[in-house]
Amino acid sequence: EVLDLLENLRLMSQASHSQARAVVELLQDRDPHVRFTIADAWVKMHQSGDAQVADIEHLARQSCSERVRLAAEDALEQMACAEALQVEALRALLLHDGDAAIRWAAQRALARARALG
Description:
Radius of gyration: 16 Å
Shape: elongated
Strand content: under 5%
């Protein structure tokens, strides 16, 4: 069971980085519709990860296995780094995108992300 938890935590960390790279890439897409869609949907993606984070935080606090606790803490750190990359890309859109609708979507996503914590 511990090995399964460790593997799941490793996979979640990898998935969060893969998602972050994809989001950052799409936020830089040449097509303004793609940039707007991703910026507009980012908060929903962020919220869906909140349940995973809560589960991992629980493991980091409650697991009897030190290996699981350390892996959970590492996964949380990796997920936070992945989110920071996405937030940075949203800020770049807000500051530099030539399309007002995209800047609005980025601003809204950043404001809602701050409100959610």
